[in-house]
């Protein structure tokens, strides 16, 4: 009898125990499914530009796909925080997210410079995909960003960077004394060539060109430069484009860790699709912009291969300088060099 009673009691205990677990898990799942996460995300492009508009559409898609559980409010540069404070704002959680450009943050973590790489080396954005998605560059950058409480959501290969100027640029000698708006590894390479390099946020570049503060600008693809009116304050387009590069999506680490796994997966997959749309937009609009620049009277100048090689050499000098100081940057440099050997760009 005692044995039967103990069995009954034990059975009742198990029923109670597993019911408690089920109730707890169910309630937790229900709460996670109903919780709304509200983020602020600042872009680095002005609101009138197609890249920003596409990002705003992406935010709407995320809200719809998450059934309203993740609401991301987009802001143009300076609308939520000053542009120069974007990195720190994401790191501290003032912003939960940013659509940014790695070259801006070389001073924060050198590996951010691989968003550009070395000028006149990569052939197109497909090479960026190989570096980041196949050869480990993404995880290298992600681990470095994580040290500063930032989750590197994804590198978005999407554009070719060009220079517009008031003076013709066909040789390295033409860069000496030129006042150029540039940043990242490209900026340091141009400085090594004798240019005076300064940084201005996108919305301020037109005014700097108009007032003669700078003579030239390196600012993304030609589509972006045309949208900002550079055809009104420059006379030349230096071709071919200097580099194949991309934007990046970064997230405050604490905000990322609070998300349930399904929303993390939603962001991971959807931001990749956003990058593909950006690449299509920039490629198509840059071809259109090139013709529009010509129609406005700008002249296309072409730098010969021998001169481009000189700039590439200067670019490697910048890379080697950082590699000597930062072991992770050195790893990234090796990845880049080995791939360029594979495709026959260097020996």
Q: How many β-strand stretches?
A: 9
Major sheet description: 9 strands, mixed
Order of helices and strands: HEHEHEHHEEHEHEHEHHEHH
- Round the Cα radius of gyration to an integer and report it: 25 Å
Indicate the proportion of strand residues: 15-25%
Distance between the termini: 87 Å
Helix content: 40-55%
Q: Provide a count of the helices.
A: 12
By secondary-structure content and strand pairing, the structural class works out as alpha/beta
Rounded mean pLDDT score: 90
Low-confidence residue ranges: 13-29
- Apparent shape: globular
Question: Could you explain the architecture of this structure?
Answer:
This protein is an alpha/beta fold and 347 residues long. Helices cover 51% and strands 18% of the residues. It contains twelve helices and nine strands. The chain has helices at 2-34, 50-65, 86-92, 125-134, 137-146, 184-192, 202-210, 222-227, 253-258, 261-295, 305-325, 327-342; strands spanning 37-43, 70-75, 97-100, 150-165, 179-181, 196-198, 216-218, 236-252, 299-302. Strands 1, 2, 3, 4, 5, 6, 7, 8 and 9 form a nine-stranded mixed beta sheet that branches. Strand 1 (37-43), helix 2 (50-65) and strand 2 (70-75) form a beta-alpha-beta unit. The longest helix is centred in the last third of the chain and has 35 residues, at 261-295. It is globular, with a radius of gyration of 25 Å. The N and C termini lie far apart (87 Å). Mean pLDDT is 90; it is low at 13-29.
